[in-house]
Amino acid sequence: MSNKQLFEKKAISEENNHQTYSTASTSRLLSSPVDKNTNIDTNSDKLALEDGAPNEPQSRMVSKYFFLLVKYIPVFLKEVFQLFDDTTERSHLVMTLQELVNRENKVRLRDNHVCKNNEPISDENEIKNMEPKSDSHTVYVERKGKFYKMKRSIFRKEQEMNMRQESTGLAGQLALYAKYLPSTYQDVVSAYILQHRYHNVSMIMQGFLSGLTVAEAVFAFNFANEELLLQGYRWMSLPVHVVFTICFTIGCISAYDRTHFYGWNLSSIRKTLSHSGIIGVVLWSMGLVATVVCIRFDESLAPIVEKPLLTEELLLYWRICSAVRAVCASSAWLLLALRPDCVYIVKGNIFKNYNINEYSST
């Protein structure tokens, strides 16, 4: 039999097998009962099931990749966050600097030994025995791109001050400076603390004083008559005078302290007069003078006087002084309230030029 006949016979047999498979599948479909309530998409469901069988390895691969992502994403994020962490970078810098210093000391010791004895060092233990003991009380602090030597105790105190700096005001910061700085600066810091508290108290007092003086001026011009003054205000005249005198004295001292005096030269005097604080000095001085002048009226109404003499001249005199006090106290307080940072001496950067190298010597 030739090759051509064998090939034709093989093709005929394959065609017969295909026809038998198609007839069998057709008969199977015809023999199976069809339910009327079934969905039209049954063939599509069967195709989906048949297609899902060979896709099982692909679904496993997807689940495997998802598991790997869930596992390694936190590690990746942790590495990313560490790139923006300054504390780890600074600690690495300090450790690197310490390693460089130790290595330099070892090289120096080796060179000194070779120069003296003309013998090389072969054992590392000999180098360790020759190394001086490192000072455990010394640390290296990085500031402005440079490393500075500082005692460990001073470094801890400075860290404590930095932690409390956000929650405390200027007085608290000055108190911390007075506690940790050398004795040379403690007297100066104590003076700054006292001055800062004095200005705070005087500012609160000036606000109350401006309201009281305005109220007294309104009372003096609208409600005060001879009968009311002799029966009611007589018992309050001296206490009111003492309170006003003390408050105006405190305000006048605070105004002088807030103003800087540049010198006795003509240009310096002009510069002093052009300073904004000189207006407060003038206002508080006028109010203090008006308060002191009112002593004549207040003594005439005092309870110690058996027969008080109240004339129209004294009443007009008291009303004018009350108006002057009200205008001066209110204007000075508004001037201070609009510029609460006009204190000349008290500053937040008192120790701005304080050399950090002095820490290591204290």
UniProtKB/TrEMBL annotation:
Family indicated by similarity: Belongs to the TMEM237 family.
Compositional bias ranges of the Basic and acidic residues kind: 1-17
Keywords: Cell projection, Cilium, Cilium biogenesis/degradation, Membrane, Transmembrane, Transmembrane helix
Keyword Chaperone: no
Start-end of Polar residues biased regions: 18-42
InterPro entries the record matches: TMEM237
Role played: Component of the transition zone in primary cilia. Required for ciliogenesis.
The protein, known as: Uncharacterized protein
GO cellular component annotations of the record: ciliary transition zone; membrane
Compartments, record wording: Cell projection, Cilium; Membrane
Any one Gene Ontology BP term: cilium assembly
Keyword Transmembrane in record: yes
Bilayer topology: Multi-pass membrane protein
